[in-house]
Amino acid sequence: MARSLGRLFKGFQSPAFPKAMGAELCPATCVSVRTPFVRTILALPSAFSSKPQDFSLPNSSWGPEMLRLYNHYKSQCEVEVEGEEKQEGPWQRLPSYNRSLKFTPAADLCVLPSGGVYLSKTIQSKARLFTRNITDPGAAFEYVLFVNKEKQKCVGIFQTGHLLEGPPGHVHGGAIATMIDTVTGSHATVLSGPVMTANLNINYRSPIQLGHTVLIESSLDKMESRKTFISCKVTGTDGSKLYTEATALFLSISVSHLLGG
Amino acid sequence: MARSLGRLFKGFQSPAFPKAMGAELCPATCVSVRTPFVRTILALPSAFSSKPQDFSLPNSSWGPEMLRLYNHYKSQCEVEVEGEEKQEGPWQRLPSYNRSLKFTPAADLCVLPSGGVYLSKTIQSKARLFTRNITDPGAAFEYVLFVNKEKQKCVGIFQTGHLLEGPPGHVHGGAIATMIDTVTGSHATVLSGPVMTANLNINYRSPIQLGHTVLIESSLDKMESRKTFISCKVTGTDGSKLYTEATALFLSISVSHLLGG
């Protein structure tokens, strides 16, 4: 099974991810229900039958603050050196798709080591990433992530749409947790490879209005054996207003663990 | 302003909620951006122009396990006493709508105490509760909550749709946080009236497959002054398999606080 999965992900060489990561992530397609919570925020484009849409690029729903922050970090993804071609800058934009993986129609890809069928084909073909499950631009989560490997930092720029309501006119606490999970989980994956979320500890300080743009900045606290500790703050776009802060713990997982071996 | 809000919510007398709660919750419609994270999971049906749809009733997407658990708790909402009419049982079903509040067109309802306009009318009219923002039955969150005031317990029965994907084939960590926030927040509101979420601390133990039904049971840990401490477990439908466990802290808020007074 590992071999056929390897073929499925052959050619996954997005510049935003280490080449090895694609190969390591693939077994998550067959993760047993007995394994811990497996994080694979990063998408696997080669598994799509056609070129997938990258949703972390600007669209007509993006407001001025969203665009300003996007351009701020985008401009630092490439740097000009006099007399030479542009070179990679300190930041990298992470692409974002609406599926972690499009399951192949081959039935054997969905058979667990225990022999059970993994998921019904209906669910497989319809499944969409929670943060990208609404197609109307601007209605739910609009976001883009940038990572700075040298500084071991990650930022997420989020514009909160009208379908994220909790308290009237404000973003639902679960939607805020989802944004935090997305940024810290992607950050941990870039730093440590395949991980699972083990803990999220979120302190809500102030409500976020619908339609607002917020900045989520995550930092690596420490790495100990299989553990990656990340913390983050959700602030206004100038960083002065604190909305939420959180810590997150991720556990590295091995291929054999993912396969239930 | 308080008076006009009072009129808006006059007649809110759902048996699932204390009568006083409707009146207390209404000022959240004008919560200042400077106030803390305000929780108003419980819907306010009288604010709707027509009778709103209660989404916590069975529909064609509900699977056998979802229906079985629903019927288990529903049967305990009324008890038969020999020779008498049916009486209220120990459990109560909480209705669930796709808006916390439908904003009135009156512009003055949206003016903050500071004088600023609260939200654009476009966002107001389109806003939908995060957990009910997808209309296709069974595609995202299907759920119903029951509360037992005597035992100070609340249960949520959730069926996880294909649009909640995080790890391939499994529910997103943010979607799990959203389910936990929904159950514990509703529980705290029933116990303490208007509250805000102050903290969510979530330990992920095992991934939840898309299409699965899970049971979330929350218990009151303690109440101290303005603080309501709730803990919960997310398990399989027979309670034996532990998927996630969490603690939550909610802060009671006053009407004047909500109004930024």
TrEMBL record, chains A, B:
Gene Ontology molecular-function annotations: hydrolase activity
Cellular location(s): Cell projection, Ruffle membrane; Cytoplasm; Mitochondrion inner membrane; Mitochondrion intermembrane space
Assigned EC number: 3.1.2.2
Membrane topology: Peripheral membrane protein
Main location class: membrane
Domain Thioesterase: 169-239
Gene3D superfamilies on file: Hotdog Thioesterase
Reactions catalysed, as given in the entry: (5Z,8Z,11Z,14Z)-eicosatetraenoyl-CoA + H2O = (5Z,8Z,11Z,14Z)-eicosatetraenoate + CoA + H(+); octanoyl-CoA + H2O = octanoate + CoA + H(+); decanoyl-CoA + H2O = decanoate + CoA + H(+); (9Z)-octadecenoyl-CoA + H2O = (9Z)-octadecenoate + CoA + H(+)
Keywords attached to this entry: Apoptosis, Cell membrane, Cell projection, Cytoplasm, Fatty acid metabolism, Hydrolase, Lipid metabolism, Membrane, Mitochondrion, Mitochondrion inner membrane, Transit peptide
CDD domains on file: PaaI_thioesterase (cd03443)
One GO BP: fatty acid metabolic process
GO annotation, cellular component aspect: mitochondrial inner membrane; mitochondrial intermembrane space; ruffle membrane
A Pfam family reported for this protein in Swiss-Prot or TrEMBL: 4HBT
Assigned protein family: Belongs to the THEM4/THEM5 thioesterase family.
Protein name: Acyl-coenzyme A thioesterase THEM4
Natural source organism: Mastacembelus armatus
